[in-house]
Fold enoyl-[acyl-carrier-protein] reductase.
Amino acid sequence: MQHLVLTQFGSPDTAVELADSPQPSPAAGQVRVRIEAAAINPSDLLLIEGKYLIRPKLPATVGAEGVGVVEEAGPDVDRTIVGMRVILLSTYEYGTWSQHVVVAERDVVAVPDADPQQLAMLTINPATAHLLLEQADLTVGDWVGQTAANSAVGRLVVALAKRRGLKTLNVVRREDAAADIRDAGGDVVLVSGPDLAADITRALDGDELSLVIDPLGGDLSAPCSTP
């Protein structure tokens, strides 16, 4: 089988090589998955560059997210799982940039038939957005504020908040990004600037933010935290 291998920390175009290896067989508690699609995340690129909090021993497999079909189950695994489409939990242990991966059965989750490219992106950003909204005791009508609202996680926060009946106040750096988030369902979208604190106060009209999600920090933190 073919798979990508990280041979050194550095630029992704030179640090990763295409390798051929024998097809792996699952041991007890494992399954072999034929990968259909694997995402490329910023965290993958940071790991390759040696800038991520995880630094694997080299050479190492790469790729955190992926979806595929279970082709073979280990001797003690229920064989009804064979043929199922599954996503791999993002443990950074397996390396999804590969044609086949052997993983622990506990680290796969069955998913319905859908676009594999969409399914391959389920385990990092959507889960992050969901868990962020779980950090506060929120009720219908509460306000959630966030910076970097046009990021992948930010867009998912908007979508998940709307499903829960929450309102979002979203801060971005550019007007074109603001238009995108308005189209995505953001209730209030503001472009950061010197009057951001006043803009937030005006938009909330006496309400308060029940939760602030701020991945940026710096100058934007204070206006969002104390409208």
Notes: The longest strand covers residues 30-37. The chain has two domains: 2-119, 125-225. The domain at 2-119 is CATH 3.90.180.10 (Quinone Oxidoreductase; Chain A, domain 1).
